[in-house]
Amino acid sequence: MKAETATAQIPPDTRMRNKKPASGGRFWRSFKNQKYLWMMSIPFVIWAFVFSYLPLWGWTMAFQKYKPARGFFEQEWVGFEHFKILFTDSQFLLALRNTLAMSGMGLIAGFIFPITFAILLNELRLGFFKRFAQTVSYLPHFVSWVVAAGIVTKMLSSENGLVNDVMLAIGFIDTPIQFMAQGHLFWGIVTLSDVWKETGWNAIIYLAAISGIGPELYEAARVDGASRLRQVWHITLPGIRPTITVLLIMSVGNLLNIGFEKQFLLGNNLVTDYSQVLDLYSLKYGLGMARYSYGTAINIFNSVISVILLFTINGIFKRTTKESLL
Length: 326
Fold this sequence. Notes:
By secondary structure, this protein is mainly alpha-helical. The protein has a domain at 103-277: Orthogonal Bundle (MetI-like fold). 71% of the residues lie in helices and 1% in strands. The protein has a two-stranded antiparallel ribbon with strand order 1-2. The longest helix has 34 residues, at 90-123. It is flat and about 75 Å long.
């Protein structure tokens, strides 16, 4: 009775103002208020559709026995035949193993080294030395993998290679090691080569994140008697945690897409069982042998696994740290 009385006492125009607008009305009102932003985004939406989504039409090739000379409706449809061949091919399973192993090692090293390097640079007090170290560490990023692979091969050579010469000089080994002919060393060589080439460049984003941490936090920690190591542990690392989370989610999503340049340039016939990766396998047994449908099936497998990994790791972080990318 009281509720009816209270409702009756509310003026009709006030009830109209408090009424929740329909979702369609909210959309058009938002569109009208932000029409210039919507118009600015249209070219990018069209660009993304044309170059990112429209080519997905080509995935239909994976379910055909594709012949370039035939039209779309003249192709022979074979269903999942290429995927069945894919999962029973021992070379594909070997390439998958190598890809996962090198991706996992690269993922771990690709986070530990840049984060450590960025923290060490941030702790430097000599401005000139800090800038010099930053510049020197960035330079390898601009060297192509063709040149970088030549440098690595020369450094690890059993004839006048710097690594073998140093190890012989300190008595660590008696005879030179043929690093580039040892299959079980190939994953480590690729990982360390990538660390040498990209650590400085990847540290930039962590340095930017560290610079965003408020200096008053460090001052308060110093007043409380915290050592520099304590400040790094309790202020710097928690401060860059959101950046680490986002980059880790993106890296896990690209776990199978590690490219093939490093493996192709550093590999040879003696280490093929350890250097074959999915992208190289797709190039060699797909496009290289004019098996376009088979190559498309490999790329679909990569994309599906990448999407699954991305949503899985994003869901894990969302539950545990309340931070997510999606």
